[in-house]
UniProtKB/TrEMBL annotation:
<comment type="pathway">
    <text>Amino-acid biosynthesis; glycine biosynthesis; glycine from L-serine: step 1/1.</text>
</comment>
<feature type="domain" description="Serine hydroxymethyltransferase-like">
    <location>
        <begin position="5"/>
        <end position="385"/>
    </location>
</feature>
<feature type="site" description="Plays an important role in substrate specificity">
    <location>
        <position position="225"/>
    </location>
</feature>
<dbReference type="GO" id="GO:0030170">
    <property type="term" value="F:pyridoxal phosphate binding"/>
</dbReference>
<dbReference type="InterPro" id="IPR049943">
    <property type="entry name" value="Ser_HO-MeTrfase-like"/>
</dbReference>
<comment type="subunit">
    <text>Homodimer.</text>
</comment>
<keyword id="KW-0489">Methyltransferase</keyword>
<dbReference type="GO" id="GO:0008168">
    <property type="term" value="F:methyltransferase activity"/>
</dbReference>
<keyword id="KW-0808">Transferase</keyword>
<dbReference type="Pfam" id="PF00464">
    <property type="entry name" value="SHMT"/>
</dbReference>
<comment type="function">
    <text>Catalyzes the reversible interconversion of serine and glycine with tetrahydrofolate (THF) serving as the one-carbon carrier. This reaction serves as the major source of one-carbon groups required for the biosynthesis of purines, thymidylate, methionine, and other important biomolecules. Also exhibits THF-independent aldolase activity toward beta-hydroxyamino acids, producing glycine and aldehydes, via a retro-aldol mechanism. Thus, is able to catalyze the cleavage of L-allo-threonine.</text>
</comment>
<dbReference type="InterPro" id="IPR015421">
    <property type="entry name" value="PyrdxlP-dep_Trfase_major"/>
</dbReference>
<feature type="binding site">
    <location>
        <begin position="121"/>
        <end position="123"/>
    </location>
    <ligand>
        <name>(6S)-5,6,7,8-tetrahydrofolate</name>
    </ligand>
</feature>
<comment type="similarity">
    <text>Belongs to the SHMT family.</text>
</comment>
<keyword id="KW-0554">One-carbon metabolism</keyword>
<dbReference type="InterPro" id="IPR015424">
    <property type="entry name" value="PyrdxlP-dep_Trfase"/>
</dbReference>
<feature type="binding site">
    <location>
        <position position="240"/>
    </location>
    <ligand>
        <name>(6S)-5,6,7,8-tetrahydrofolate</name>
    </ligand>
</feature>
């Protein structure tokens, strides 16, 4: 029972190396965040030892009296945070939450209609190589080719053509707010259920800074680890009428024993998200994305044929459009990595380049808000990114990296933590 430094120095050294990587660089992958120390502790706790198949009060294992309380608290906090009738906090991940939603709402072979992957949708929204595209008849809608926005008229037209049993809202790479009310009306018009996967914007919804899909959707799924800043995992909210079906779709439908340590960490994260400080953090996230959008549309960047999809953002990310630029997404990602900033390349709608290089970069501001960034720091990092993209191969990477390091030092991640064990 020695601590990890002695029991497994090889892995211990890598944990420390990753801690340093996170502390020294600046994280701008839109789907990532930093959990609080309390979430880290809950997730690294003895609850990992416990089997608890079933639900609180109805388990298939003994010794569940403590974890029952943990799961009940997590469920109640999720319900109260989002004003939902029902919450299931057992899904191990966003993809598994989504698999359970399909299983609960429709039958294999039924038709589903979601946002296309290359227009910002997620793999689990009906992509051919995913279970959702293999077991269901997956149809997709794209963004409006002129505005690059999700357009209810386009969804309605497609829904009338393909008659889906399920319409999917939510996205992985899209910088605007969808009209949930209009989407629900379309679902009603064609007799479909309406499901929203709010994985990306769950934190913004919790803070009241993004419209909530909960009043409109039959079911809402989410991850806990993006803007919400919880442990890597999923959860599901729904109207009471779907409770039984969703419970059995998660367990025993998709999963065995729940990860009770992760459920404890989710409870902690839901608790954090209900506090006024969280709202402040989400506001800084949104402000940071707007600052970034403004800088990336300045003349020096524009001169390189670089623009932003939809000309701005309402959420925690911007989508850089490189279709008219010499630089591709891979080159942009690598250039920013050399400056100490982690982002990911992404296809953009109507992308002429293959997905392996892509013509977009997705840049998010949530993780830096968790690090404490406010307006002055977002202005500085936005200028570093703008200057780098405008200069391309000629960028003074060393000077830009020095500016990133200064910000990272002024806003330390996990101050006082220099080892993971
Ligand atoms: N749903 C959306 C909209 C996502 O963006 C993601 C992750 O990128 C997922 C689901 C899947 O979550 P996970 O990676 O936890 O399976």
């Amino acid at each position: 029972n020695a601590p990890i430094a002695q029991a497994d120095p090889e892995i211990a050294a890598l944990l420390d190396a990753e801690l340093r990587r996170q502390q020294e660089g600046l994280e701008m992958i839109a789907s990532e965040n930093f959990v609080t120390r309390a979430v880290l502790q809950a997730q690294g706790s003895v609850l990992t030892n416990k089997y608890a198949e079933g639900y609180p009060g109805h388990r298939y294992y003994g010794g569940c009296e403590v974890v029952d309380q943990v799961e009940t608290i997590a469920r109640n906090r999720a319900r109260s945070l989002y004003g939902a009738d029902y919450a299931n906090v057992q899904p191990h991940s966003g993809a598994q939450a989504n698999a359970a939603v399909y299983q609960a709402l429709i039958k294999p072979g039924d038709t589903v209609l979601g946002l296309a992957l290359d227009h910002g949708g997620h793999l689990t929204h009906g992509t051919k190589m995913n279970f959702s595209g293999k077991f269901y008849n997956a149809e997709s809608y794209g963004v409006n080719p002129e505005t690059f926005r999700i357009d209810p008229d386009i969804i309605r037209e497609k829904a009338k053509e393909v008659h889906p049993q399920l319409i999917i809202g939510g996205w992985s790479a899209y910088p605007r707010i969808e009209d949930f009310k209009a989407m629900k009306e379309i679902a009603d018009e064609v007799g479909a259920k309406f499901w929203v996967d709010m994985a990306h914007f769950a934190g913004l919804v919790a803070a009241g800074l993004h419209p909530s899909p909960v009043p409109y959707a039959d079911v809402v799924s989410s991850t806990a680890h993006k803007t919400l800043g919880g442990p890597r995992s999923g959860f599901i909210l729904a109207k009471e009428e779907y409770a039984k079906k969703l419970n059995s779709a998660v367990f025993p439908g998709q999963q065995g024993g729940p990860l009770m340590h992760v459920i404890a960490a989710k409870a902690v994260a839901f608790g954090v998200a209900a506090k006024p400080e969280f709202k402040d953090r989400m506001q800084r996230t949104l402000d940071g994305a707007k600052i970034l959008a403004e800088r990336l549309q300045a003349e020096d960047v524009k001169a390189q044929g670089i623009s932003l999809l939809t000309g701005g953002t309402d959420v925690h990310l911007v989508m850089v459009d490189l279709r008219n630029s010499e630089m591709d997404g891979k080159q942009g990602e690598d250039l920013l990595a050399q400056c100490g900033i982690t982002v990911n390349r992404n296809t953009v709608p109507f992308d002429p380049r293959p997905a392996s290089v892509a013509s977009g970069i997705r840049i998010g501001t949530a993780a830096l808000a968790s690090r404490g960034f406010g307006e002055p720091q977002y202005r500085e990092i936005a200028d570093v990114i703008g200057t780098a993209l405008a200069a391309g191969k000629a960028a003074d990477v060393e000077a830009l990296h020095a500016r990133v390091t200064k910000l990272a030092q002024e806003f330390p991640l996990y101050p006082g933590l220099d080892q993971t064990h």
